[in-house]
Design a protein that fits this description.
alpha+beta; 1 helix; 34% helix
Length: 73
């Protein structure tokens, strides 16, 4: 049986819903960390530009995090 997000944590905000109201994407409410959640397979959808941006944003934040960790050492 498929499941869907009924409520989000206070640290998350809904940024996309399906026509039936099912939550499809969430992100962090604060700027101090990158949190993104999707309830679909972005690499398999027919809208490559939007999905590419999601993946590129994730990679950019990972690189930034790695660089910050290097500075700490």
């Amino acid at each position: 049986m498929p499941s869907a997000t009924a409520r989000t944590a206070p640290a998350l905000r809904v940024v996309r819903t399906a026509e039936d109201g099912v939550v499809e994407a969430v992100e962090a409410t604060g700027p101090d960390r990158w949190i993104g959640g999707v309830q679909y397979r972005p690499e398999e959808l027919a809208n490559p530009p939007a999905n590419r941006r999601l993946c590129e944003d994730f990679v950019a934040h990972c690189a930034r995090y790695a660089a910050e960790r290097q500075e700490i050492r």
